[in-house]
Amino acid sequence: MAYVGGKMKPPSETFAPTAERIEAIAHAAIARLPEAFRVHLGAVVLRVEEFADDAVLDEMGIEDPFDLSGLYTGRPIGEKSVFESGALPDMIFLYRRPLLDEWAETGVSLERLVTHVLMHEVGHHFGLSDEDMHALEQED
Which CATH architecture has domain 17-139? Predict the structure, then answer.
């Protein structure tokens, strides 16, 4: 037990969530999606890393690695062809440290934050642009 914020807490509540915990939250969010969507995500690889690598940040014109919490790489479903071969699998990256910083800064639950970032990247897999997703979020 550790003394945190005036209360005794078990060690699991005193350390930053691990990459494995974030991945488990993301998989639970995917499991809650309707089957019609989940069926198209079966081959998408989910990876949790500390930060995006320098090449990704450079390609996107991002200077601060804390400014990128998730990324989809691959071809959206509507752009795929049965004639393609040898392509890398579609991937969704969640970046642990930027997620944890945003979690600490906003007070939003980690589950809600991870789910939000994951759904944004899933949206790219389905061919939605950032503008499309922002418009959908405004409808809520």
Answer: 2-Layer Sandwich (3.30)
